[in-house]
Amino acid sequence: MGNSPEFTATAQSPIRVAVAGASGYAGGEILRLLLGHPAYQDGRLVVGALTAGGNAGAKLREFHPHLLPLADRVLGATDFDTLSGHDVVFLGLPHGHSAVIAEQLPDTTVVIDCGADFRLSESADWQRWYGGDHAGTWPYGMPELPGKREHLIGATRIAVPGCYPTSATLALAPAVAAGIVEPAVHVVAVSGTSGAGKSLRADLLGSEVMGSVRAYAVGGAHRHTPEIKQNLATLTDAAVSVSFTPVLAPMPRGILATCTAPTTATADEARAVYEKAYADEPFVHVLPEGTLPSTGAVLGSNAVHLAVTVDSDAGVLVVVAALDNLTKGTAGAAVQSMNLALGLPETAGLSTVGVAP
Ligand SMILES: NC(=O)C1=CN([C@@H]2O[C@H](COP(=O)(O)OP(=O)(O)OC[C@H]3O[C@@H](n4cnc5c(N)ncnc54)[C@H](OP(=O)(O)O)[C@@H]3O)[C@@H](O)[C@H]2O)C=CC1
Ligand SMILES: CC(=O)N[C@@H](CCC(=O)OP(=O)(O)O)C(=O)O
Question: What is the pTM for the complete model shown?
Answer without folding.
Answer: 0.97
